[in-house]
């Protein structure tokens, strides 16, 4: 039950979009003034509520490292009561100092501050400009500033510090600090000036060794400053993600293992039950609440999670995320194979979407507005209209052999191909190299290895300015398919385009023809010709020793029919058209008999929200730090490799200041990222591009992309920020 006094505290909770913060004070909740959002006392605990315009809700507890036992116990109770006040709709998160979720950090784009003290020490917020404190900044994408002792002993050469003296805010940059981190420290200093000082403070930037007298008078003569230390890596345990059913049907909470290896199947989740997804290897536990589950089980979700953590002897700082059915976030969905949201099949349902983890509205494709609508270009993976120059090479005996232009658009499973595409943007020529191969099939390992070398060689011949895209059969980007104009991209199951084919085609062959949202069409030979391969939404071509038939599903389009006729002509003849439900006996006999196949209408397409990661393997292990909130071009760290994950494609963006190991190993970094992903997407296209050579299909995911930004180096950008 919710105490009466909390109805007053929660009176405005969720009434308008935005963030609300309360601090736990003497077993009660007190609102935090908005100008102090993003500041957290290490001796306190907090409750945060984020409301979208939909509305939908995120509720967080935040526990400081020095928070009292009473406050640590009270905060989860307050979160449950706030969840109950909002009718069980929020997603609930438990947060701990120095280990906050990406969702939590997204509310504080400039970063958060950890301040010494708390309610128990009687410390009050200082609202005057009489301030003396030192903040130590850590993090690149998510900045955390910890208040430390005001002495030279707190400094090191590898980090940035903020010396906050109220009317003057000094950003001190160590001699070995990273320029990108310097830029982030300016953002936090501006946040302090604007929010805490109402704009009445002056920001100064000082490099190690150039301290002004006011700083030296405060700290004394500068001694030898120690070098920086590398960021501490979170401990990772080799615990595979596991899915459990939780139930109190027998009178006590019990868990039953459902599956122990991702990707999990979405239909394993029943709305009549509650589940725990155990990702303790990354110190996270998810609780999923079915909408028709026992009300007592739904309300006891946090209790069940904490009992689970205790029974498993996990760290008490294991983070918990609790979500009702329909409110699943991107991190949870990534543990499932091809997660489909309700409104992708039935239209919009009750909205639970949260900020940038929400589905992105699909923009219909219109080639005439391609260069004016970059968001559309990005969603549909289109670089241009495909009218540039195309050259195709087959990998053979460690070298490239030109493919006969009359066969452009036909790929054979026994070959590896390099597709070179050149196009102009104004007075500048741009290049893309598509490397195409069939995963686990006829293309030899030697040819696959050679294709990687030949791609680099081709890039070198273009002054290393080409964008490289690795493509596996069946995952061709829309732009690659569009290069063949009014002809479909045809993929033959085996064989080769060489003069002497390595394998003979089967006597019975079935080609699946489908048109994409960009109106480009692919025709793929099915590995096992069977009635179960048919789909009511598409068109198929069936070739047997005695017949050639064109099967038209109820959802087949005129363009797909035209592409099917082209394929039939390629196979040597004119096909007999067969409408779905009117198939002759010979049709079914050729496919091994009549069987069930896909007869439901195509799911409505939606766009899953993109995610941006700052990636590095400098330590010998892949570290991927997600950029919180709505990312922008400014979040691209020019000294690193960034991974943009748009779900059906991965972009590896290489900053010009990245080290040589990262530049040459960027595709490996992207593959390591994919290998660590639990959703089973290992074969999706991976595009490598260098800073300044970005494609429309990449830049369109960034709001207001500025092509001139790279004209300034990061030091110039630092100076520009200081002038704001």
TrEMBL record:
Source superkingdom: Eukaryota
UniProt keyword Zinc present: no
The Gelsolin-like domain, residue ranges: 28-105, 142-213, 257-332, 401-480, 524-567, 626-698
Family: Belongs to the villin/gelsolin family.
Extent of the signal sequence: none
GO molecular function terms noted in the UniProt entry: actin filament binding; phosphatidylinositol-4,5-bisphosphate binding
GO cellular component: actin cytoskeleton; cytoplasm
Key words of the record: Actin capping, Actin-binding, Repeat
Lineage start: Eukaryota, Metazoa, Chordata, Craniata, Vertebrata
Pfam families per record: Gelsolin
GO-annotated biological processes: actin filament severing; actin polymerization or depolymerization; barbed-end actin filament capping; cell projection assembly; central nervous system development
InterPro entries listed in its UniProt record: ADF-H/Gelsolin-like_dom_sf (IPR029006), Gelsolin-like_dom (IPR007123), Villin/Gelsolin (IPR007122)
Organism the protein comes from: Scophthalmus maximus (Turbot)
The UniProt record lists the keyword Nucleotide-binding: no
The protein's name in its UniProt record: Scinderin like a
